[in-house]
Recover the amino acids of this structure.
């Protein structure tokens, strides 16, 4: 009663906001970097059926290690390092599953009209990326798709800066050749 | 880089973006994982399993209500600049290596037990997630209250309605705990072994492994 009498006149107090179940730091990292982690996972060859689990695992590692993160590298490059380690650990499984998914997709396509251009481009990109070895693939993804600087890529991959440059040159050359081969095959098929 | 490749990259740079549904789904799974087992290795969470499952329900409820408590966030793809051709820097900071030892890689079998037809009543993923979380929360409440029959009934309902639901793995882990509490150690152990075989790398594995008699 007394408490009610002392309550200031005015609009009723708002309900307290629902708490975010993730710790604030983790929630912030998740919000800011989820998209980056997700698309990087896809570009490093994580098949569609495994990407949820892997991305989740990245953030579990973040949850466990965020307190120890000293900020010597950027959060983004640190995240990529975590992701890359996880992908490397699972790459054989991912490669096998990726081939199965590609097969599934090709079977689906048989019963469909030509896939839309965006989808076709994305598949082409993934097919080309799959021709690169792990280092070149990571460097190419970060440089030419994420448009990171070389020092950042060195941080993210643990490669020396000069190695980053050389891997990028080689990766671009291999991608160009692979694309040429593919186009030539297409032209041959059209004849 | 030749024009052909450059054009392909221009067309695909924005590809592979996750959808809002991807973001929400993984977030809900992350919350559930941290709630039911993930933090075991960190010791950072002081919430009990009930409280943690409650959080899953909270996130599910908020999704169902169309309320998301943080903004979607601006696109963080800041262009830092394309790569220069020279000017190497001193050694970069090493990337921490947080990854535990790799497991041999048995392919995970589909998440859950063989089950009857899924529920066709709820069609929206957000609603399903809220409903899934509610069932798991109620199962945990019942388990904590010693009402094993009710806990089992909730888990059975979840399995019937959401055989491949977002929280199916969490349900399987919860069932191990229920069986342990029911004194059915042999069944719990059998289920735990199966869980660990199907999800050898699951963040819930430790929780399941230590739930009852230890699993070697």
């Amino acid at each position: 009663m007394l408490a009610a009498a002392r309550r200031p006149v005015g609009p009723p107090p708002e309900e307290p906001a629902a708490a975010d179940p993730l710790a604030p730091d983790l929630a912030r990292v998740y919000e800011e970097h989820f998209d980056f982690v997700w698309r990087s996972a896809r570009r490093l060859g994580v098949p569609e059926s495994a990407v949820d689990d892997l991305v989740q695992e990245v953030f579990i590692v973040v949850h466990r290690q965020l307190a120890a993160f000293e900020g010597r590298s950027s959060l983004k490059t640190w995240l990529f390092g975590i992701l890359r380690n996880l992908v490397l650990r699972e790459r054989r499984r991912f490669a096998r599953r990726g081939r199965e998914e590609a097969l599934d997709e090709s079977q689906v396509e048989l019963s469909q009209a030509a896939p839309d251009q965006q989808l076709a481009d994305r598949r082409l990109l993934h097919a080309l990326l799959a021709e690169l070895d792990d280092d070149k693939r990571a460097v190419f993804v970060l440089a030419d798709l994420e448009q990171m600087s070389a020092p950042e890529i060195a941080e993210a991959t643990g490669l020396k800066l000069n190695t980053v440059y050389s891997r990028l040159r080689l990766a671009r050359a291999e991608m160009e050749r692979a694309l040429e081969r593919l186009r030539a095959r297409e032209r041959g098929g059209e004849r | 880089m030749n024009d052909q490749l450059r054009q392909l990259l221009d067309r695909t740079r924005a590809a592979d973006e996750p959808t809002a549904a991807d973001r929400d789904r993984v977030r809900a799974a992350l919350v559930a994982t941290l709630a039911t087992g993930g933090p075991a290795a960190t010791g950072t969470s002081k919430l009990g399993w009930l409280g943690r499952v409650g959080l899953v329900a909270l996130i599910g409820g908020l999704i169902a209500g169309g309320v998301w408590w943080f903004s979607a966030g601006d696109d963080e793809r800041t262009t830092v600049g394309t790569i220069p051709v020279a000017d190497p820097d001193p050694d970069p900071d090493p990337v921490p290596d947080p990854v535990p030892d790799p497991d041999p890689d048995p392919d995970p079998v589909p998440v859950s037990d063989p089950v009857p037809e899924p529920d066709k009543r709820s069609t929206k993923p957000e609603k399903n997630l809220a409903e899934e979380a509610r069932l798991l929360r109620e199962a945990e409440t019942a388990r904590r209250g010693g009402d094993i029959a009710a806990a089992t009934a909730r888990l059975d309902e979840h399995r019937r309605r959401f055989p491949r639901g977002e929280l199916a793995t969490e349900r399987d882990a919860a069932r191990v705990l229920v069986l342990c509490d029911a004194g059915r150690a042999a069944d719990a152990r059998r289920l735990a072994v199966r869980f660990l075989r199907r999800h050898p790398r699951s963040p819930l594995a430790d929780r399941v492994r230590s739930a009852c008699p230890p699993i070697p």
Remarks:
- Chain B touches chain A through 66 residues (CB under 8 Å).
- The helical segments of chain B are 3-12, 20-36, 49-64, 125-144, 148-161, 168-181, 185-198, 205-209.
- Residues 26 and 180 of chain B are 29 Å apart (CA to CA).
